[in-house]
Amino acid sequence: MSDVQAKSKTHGDLIRVRRPGHGMPGELFGRQDVFETDVDIFFHKHWILVGVTSDVPEPGDVSTVDIGKASIIIVRDDDENIRTYRNVCRHRGARLKEAGKSTVGMLVCPYHQWTYDLDGSLRHAAHMGKDFDPTCRSLIPVKTKVVGTHVFVCLDENAPEDVSKLEETMVPRFAPYDLPNTKIAFEQEIIENGNWKLVMENNRECYHCAATHPELTASFLPEDFGICADSLSEESLREFEEYTARNAACQASWERDGFVGGAVEWLGENAVTQFRTQRLVIAGNGESQTMDTKVASIKLLGNLQRRDLGDTHLWTHNSWTHVMSDHAVIAYIIPLAPDKTLVRTKWLVHADAVEGVDYNVSDLTAVWTATNMQDKHLVEITHEGTQDPAYQPGIFSQFTETYVEQFSRWYAARLNAHGV
Q1: In a 3-state reduction of DSSP, which class is residue 356?
Q2: CB atoms closer than 10 angstroms to residue 22
Q3: Same domain, yes or no, for 343 and 408?
Q4: Going along 283-412, which residue ranges are E strands?
Q5: Which residues, other chains included, contact 8 with Cβ-Cβ below 8 Å and sequence gap of 6+?
Q6: Apex 51 CA angle, 45 and 57, nearest 5
Q7: pLDDT value, residue 154
Q8: pLDDT recorded at residue 7
Q9: Do 376 and 202 contact (CB within 8 A), yes or no?
Q10: End of a domain among 119, 146, 173?
Q11: What secondary structure letter does DSSP report for 196?
Q12: Which of 33, 205, 267, 359 has its CB surrounded by the most CB atoms within 10 Å?
């Protein structure tokens, strides 16, 4: 296909010509018009993860997140509720806060000093006259769901209702960890020079893990996400049988102690708020995603006494989460350009855990800081390749890339639902 032919195809045309079981056309990763439509549909009209409750631990704490042309303010109010608002002054539209975190008594517009309470109400607007009614000038609220510690928002008035499935599934799974009673031990921001869909595709498969993620595979078992038995040696087959037996034994043990672990998938073309969860077995000592597979923090989450609770993972279309007995790793993405994606990762520990006593940051973060940088490289070389004139979408492994194929189908279905 020539450059002229490619540019003449619409966003919808490009996804509809994708062959089942194959990657997406390169134009879907590189074109500006495709990127802008993606942001509008997948980040402004769907539920997305934008932070955690410990981003704003105290009343007056603010976290501002930019998403395309939109910007939101996450704030903890005086009653300790999480509230979110559009970052737009109701006077002449100035941004109230720059991206990042801060602490305020009230939200004051830097332009004309219109002043808003933490509940969003307009408290002060000078020189507006006696007929001015401040009650209809409150900050614009954003639809918000707090699930565990996860702060999900939808910028559209017609927010997808099936977020209730995610909420109903994850609230009891997160409950034993008491995630609202955590603090951020470490944060990392990476800008990956690749399209957001490639970031998520990379996260949806572990075909690449054994060769590229030595730190992760010390604790993470790629078998959980597919394996082709045809290519295994007799020794590898025995190891897989051992893995299967261990997995079954762990799941039974967790169930006996009341820890839910079975896989729940809301991923198909009929799903809007896409998610997957499962309690995964951890290799080695079986305690945590650390280099020695033991807990990194001796102060466990919640009131837990048991260390070997596996990894409660959660996928959404812009995030991934791993919750162990001692800490949680929560990451989400924000697209910045066709070839740039911001990846934010937060490591959470018990709110009372003391650095240097209960945990060391280096032990806590070693696995995922390394994995994130390795994934950054993989995404970047893949994005570069998809923009090469020689690129032709390749075939997926039916054993290890089934979730990548599923993501492609879901992406196409959501575009179609919005008339693209």
Answers
A1: coil
A2: 14
A3: yes
A4: 311-316, 319-323, 328-337, 340-350
A5: none
A6: 140
A7: 98
A8: 63
A9: no
A10: 146
A11: H
A12: 359
CA distance 250 to 227: 20
- CATH code: domain of residue 308: 3.90.380.10
Give, in degrees to the nearest 5, the angle at Cα 91 between 85 and 93.
60
The total of structural domains in the chain comes to 2
Is 376 in contact with 384 (CB distance < 8 Å)? no
DSSP string, 366-397: HHHHHHHHHHHHHHHHHHHHHTSTT--PPBPP
Same domain, 238 and 114: no
In the chain, % of residues over pLDDT 70: 95
Distance (Å, whole) CA 9 – CA 184: 45
pLDDT for position 5: 54
Q: Would you state the structure tokens that stand for residue 203, as one six-digit string?
A: 């996260």
End-to-end CA distance of the chain: 21
Query: What count of other Cβ atoms lies within 10 Å of the Cβ of residue 318?
Result: 24
C-alpha distances out from residue 338 to 242, 264, 274, 377, 382, Å: 43, 31, 22, 16, 13
d(CA 118, CA 79): 10
Q: Are 343 and 372 in contact (CB under 8 A)?
A: yes
pLDDT tens-place string over residues 167-220 = 999 999 999 999 999 999 999 999 999 999 999 999 999 989 989 999 998 898
Sign, CA torsion 98/103/108/110: negative
* Type of residue at 359: Y
How far is the C-alpha of 245 from the C-alpha of 232, rounded, in Å? 18
Say if CB 85 and CB 142 are below 8 A apart: yes
Taking 50 as the pLDDT cut, the residues of the chain under it are 1-2, 4
The type of residue at 102 is: S
Q: What was the pLDDT predicted at 130?
A: 92
What is the Cα–Cα distance from 348 to 326, expressed in whole angstroms?
9
Residues in the chain: 420
The verdict on 142 and 178 lying in the same domain is no
**77 and 132 together in one domain:** yes
259 in helix, strand or coil?
A: coil
> Which candidate, 171, 163, 146, places its Cα nearest to that of 312?
171
Question: Is there a single domain that holds both residue 164 and residue 282?
Answer: yes
Among 266, 279, 265, smallest CA distance to 308 is for 279
Q: Which positions ≥6 away from 18 have C-beta within 8 Å?
A: 24, 25, 393, 408, 412
